[in-house]
DNA sequence: CGAAAGCGCGCC
DNA sequence: AAAGGGCGCGCTTTCG
């Protein structure tokens, strides 16, 4: 550690880290590298405590196991990990504050999902992406670094090989300039030929390359068109990169931490909807038949309610002709036939039974009463966070079971009308910016459009989603006259999205969000892309147009939300609180009861600080609704 | 046979 | 004339 200090590490200075299995780690800072083969997590803790550096990693996957807390690793989410690492916020230890996730920043710059080290390296070198590394997971995620979680541990002593020839003769970069896939894998798994010293020396080299890649990414971010330099002197895209990196860290913590769920309440709630937990397979079949019976009484026993095809035919047989069987379509036919009502009830119950039933509880709620699923800091489209295990689609009925633990409260904070406010910022529409002065933005919009509030809301949402039919279409024309700057911004995005092909030889700048994230659009040289080749080209283009129109708003909103969330994450550390859920425009915090008021204030401060730089100069106001409660469902919305 | 697509729906 | 974005999940049907 003294060596690191001597080398000039200080708060915010980059320190790259590469794990080698679980008992080896290499750090790089400036022109110096260090390798450790014993208790690497302790090394990281000490460095964090002493310097608060900006941690640089190729990706949180794999590296994250080093960050797992020592004291409360009860999750199973890091099963197989030795569980030693930087302590998470809330248990009195240190949480890494600053980081740079090369994979996350790569996705910001280039779009898409691919973010393995080989792809990141190729991009910073201006090379074409190399072939994808082998997949290790059944879900299709590229997950090379995760392999270290299953790798054999490095012995701490003995087995000391020669540092030397085999390292130099087998370097990381091939003749084509690409990282050598085998080298990456061997380095991360710690399976390179030779002893501990050899393997750690390789990791040192990999850490040095991480610093090279980081510098290149930051240069690229600074060189993006329309730099939007913030009051701190830093372009917004660089701030986006930092926030997106921290969001990956937050996602990792959310996956480990889980959402508090009161199991008995959850069991009772589910039973109240679909009946008691079946004892065995026979019981399950019986319960299923009992659910189906009230509907099949009208349709006959041969109809398979779970097959849309069969259901549609069955409905037609009783005189109900529908193009599909979606519930909004059936709702419109309420009263037309006695089957509709029980069918809709069946759908709701079936949802609970299949997706959010006892099986779901057993699969995802741990013995500690925490609902856990995987989290990712950004999706492949506009960059929202995603979560598994139904964490982002928990039915309202089940939220009564999300109960704070004894001595704790939830602080629920959600951003009001974030998307239209974001639209005001990114488009620079002065009239829409004026409307954001109100707590309820739709009130002044309704006044200006001379429609009622519900119509105004539909019109605004329709403008952002690309809907033009129905009542929304009428109000949309009025929107266009009243907020021409905002609408022109959306129209421009749509035009890029639906443009099937740039003129030959002309490359257009890619579509980016306000914060600089590249929005992935398919290359369609002849008006279609491979996946949609069979579909009507105009429909395909229109669809991509709507996607782009929405993505510039949804994506920018996601960036502001995440920048806010990671700021809250930091402010919660000294208050002993934790973020337990991120829901696109809403944060759920689990905090000591006696600190709840302080957390509320800190959450507001975080929004003021974040919006202050993110929306600097726009005149746009952001508002948060913040409530304290014991149950998620009790927080007013 | 397993993988992928399509449907429908929960949430935002 | 019509044209609604994103995600994950479980089910059925179809593809290869």
How would you characterize the overall build of this protein?
InterPro entries: DNA-dir_DNA_pol_A_palm_dom, DNA/RNA_pol_sf, DNA_polymerase_A. Keywords: DNA replication. The protein is α+β, with helices and mostly antiparallel strands. It has four domains: 2-223, no CATH class; 263-364, Taq DNA Polymerase, Chain T, domain 4 (Up-down Bundle), CATH 1.20.1060; 373-418 and 559-634, Alpha-Beta Plaits (2-Layer Sandwich); 420-556, DNA polymerase, domain 1 (Orthogonal Bundle). It has 23 helices and 13 strands. It has helices at 2-6, 40-51, 60-67, 102-110, 117-124, 165-169, 181-189, 196-222, 236-257, 263-274, 281-299, 308-317, 327-331, 340-354, 358-364, 418-427, 430-435, 442-449, 453-465, 470-482, 484-498, 537-572, 596-614; strands at residues 14-20, 24-29, 32-36, 54-57, 98-101, 259-260, 370-371, 375-376, 386-387, 408-415, 578-582, 586-592, 624-629. The strands form four sheets. A five-stranded mixed sheet has the order 3-2-1-4-5. Helix 4 (102-110) packs across helix 9. The radius of gyration is 27 Å and the shape is globular. It starts with a helix and ends in an 8-residue tail after the last strand. The protein binds a DNA duplex (12 and 16 nucleotides) through residues 304, 306-310, 324-327, 347-348, 350-351, 354-356, 360, 373, 379, 381-382, 384-396, 461-462, 464-469, 472-473, 538-539, 542-543, 545-547, 549-551, 553-554, 558, 583-586.
